[in-house]
Amino acid sequence: MKRSQLGLLVWSSLVVFTAFLTVFAADSPRREDVPKGEITKYSFENSKIFPGTVRDYWVYVPKQYDPSKPACVYVGQDGIGFNAPAVFDRLIHNKEMPIVIGVFVRPGVVKALSDKALDRFNRSYEYDGLGDNYARFLLEELLPEVEKKTTADGRPLRLSHDGNDRCIGGASSGAVCAFTAAWERPDAFRRVFSAIGTYVGLRGANNYPTLVRKLEPKPIRIFLEDGSKDLNIYGGDWWMANQEMERALRFAGYEVNHAWGEGGHNARHATEIFPEAMRWLWQDWPNPVKAGAGSQQLQALLLPGEDWKLVSKGYKFTEGPAVNAKGEVFFNDIPNSKTYKIGLDGKVSLFLADSKRANGQAFGPDGRLYAVTGTQQVVAYDASGKMQVLAEGIRGNDIVVGHKGDIYVTH
Fold it and tell me: For the chain, how are helix, strand and coil distributed in percent, rounded to 5?
């Protein structure tokens, strides 16, 4: 296959994918008595997180928007899809969802430097990849840019920064992108609409069902949609993957709902059920979306009603956490060359004023604290902080002490 033909196929697939997000607008006819929101198109070209990319985005502002208070936010991937503006007009008018400003953004494109080369489409990299890059792009770059805009009648756009006031959605890889943004930053996105989600083996999203089951639940509410005739190709089985995702979310105690159909890899069914999904995702707002109790296995380990609590802050590093037989916790601030102790009362005290830039540490069967230092030593401290040098000339990083006193150090 020639390069030009390959480029044409890639471009055609992107056009078809974008087209199927909007082709079914007739499924949700607009009513004349419903106030119509304003839609404005913009372009963004200054990303530092995805350097070199350019992309179009659209901002929807409902007629009822009042700039005296921040509006809720919906972020849609692949541009405007699911006939969202008309749906928002109707649901906001009927008070079935709050005042929401919609930001509909296409994936980035790196433009070719000459007419003898092809543009590079960044969609899979941005959408299918795990990690916080895309969430950071939205939070640090795109949404602040949106807040610089005004409506046609001069109203400044004020967006809520509260994750409980934000919903994010998409289809296919855009659904994975939406879920990843909420997974990485539930403080910023807590409501997710996922259509024909690509939770398969492209760039790691096939791991989500396992991660969801194993990790503590996050404060995310998610609506899943898929059809029994979805793709079953080299990357995986979309229909099975979405059901596995739903079962994992339910197992882990998330607020999850779904709409299964019989369609293929297109947005027809998703567009039909989008109003229902929005009603469910925004139900009982502004009550906060909360993390579930977790699986039965997790509940057996954790204390009911207990959450993570900040013990102390202000350190450059908090390395080498080690717990002694009493339950006291010790950790190292390497750059400041200090070791601290968290007592049973939760209070933090200085254990070593000069830890020799110790890194990894662990308690041995004799009750002493063993550590590897920045001075290339392996040392042991008794309860009073008295040090004994056990070995020198070892550039250690982490340390393990066996129950017989054997010591293992990693470089």
Answer: 25, 25, 45
